[in-house]
Amino acid sequence: MTTEENEVYSAYEAINNAMIQKDRTAMELYFDKNLTFTHMSGKKQTREEFIGEIMDGTLNYFKVETKDFSISVKGDTAHMKVTHTLTAKVYGISGSWTMSGENTYKKRDGIWVRVK
Q1: How many CB atoms lie within 10 A of CB 61?
Q2: 3-class DSSP state for residue 110?
Q3: More confident residue, 40 or 30
Q4: CB within 8 A of 115, min separation 6: which ones?
Q5: Tally of CB atoms within 10 A around 102
Q6: Which of 34, 49, 51, 58 has the most Cβ atoms closer than 10 angstroms to its Cβ?
Q7: Which long-range contacts (CB under 8 A, 24 or more apart) does 90-93 make?
Q8: 25 to each of 2, 21, 28, 52, how far by Cα in Å?
Q9: Which among 48, 20, 55 has a CA at the least distance from the CA of 32?
Q10: Distance between the two ends of the chain, CA-based, in angstroms?
Q11: Which tens digit of pLDDT belongs to each residue from 45-91?
């Protein structure tokens, strides 16, 4: 991987760790203010709603196991495709779910921030 790809992957890991550790400061650092989240159920949330539910224990993330990923970087924008297995207790339901998704990151002040 290139240096930039490694930096993006490090941001991805930092986000996962912040969600597991319920680290509000790190989540606010790595999640763009306008970022929205869509759950498996289709429920959509703002950044504030998502972080709030992590902090109050509605969403409890225990482990994120990355299965496969690819990262492409052009300038200050990166796209990451990832498949991971998430072990969590969400909305009262415990389990492990394997999911695939795509995220976009922008480099701001030396930090790769998730914007989409």
Answers
A1: 18
A2: coil
A3: 30
A4: 32, 34, 35, 104, 105, 106
A5: 10
A6: 51
A7: 90/39, 90/58, 90/59, 90/60, 91/58, 91/59
A8: 28, 11, 5, 12
A9: 48
A10: 22
A11: 999 999 999 999 999 999 999 999 999 999 999 999 999 999 999 99
pLDDT for 39 equals 83
Q: What is the DSSP string of 57-93?
A: TSEEEEEEEEEEEEEEEETTEEEEEEEEEEEEEETTE
Contacts of 3 by beta carbon, 8 Å cutoff, 6+ apart: none
Count of H-run helices and E-run strands, the chain: 3, 6
Both tokens of 95, joined, read 């389990």
Amino acid symbol at 48: E
